[in-house]
Amino acid sequence: AIVGSLLGALGAYLLIEPVMGIGFAGDPLLVGAISALGILLSAAVGLFVLRRALSVPAAAILRQA
What we know:
Layout lengths: L1 H22 L4 H37 L1
Helix pairs in contact: 1-2
């Protein structure tokens, strides 16, 4: 599930990036900033999903104890 979400985020990033690149072709700094934002966003989504995936088994273990 974690790998799937990361791949999904990467896929969305790769889909959006060329469109953004065409829109701001004259400003490489802006393209770089958008790229960095896309990477940070996908990392944040990955971490959130990872935390959710880890918190479910932890809650189940605590309930049994």
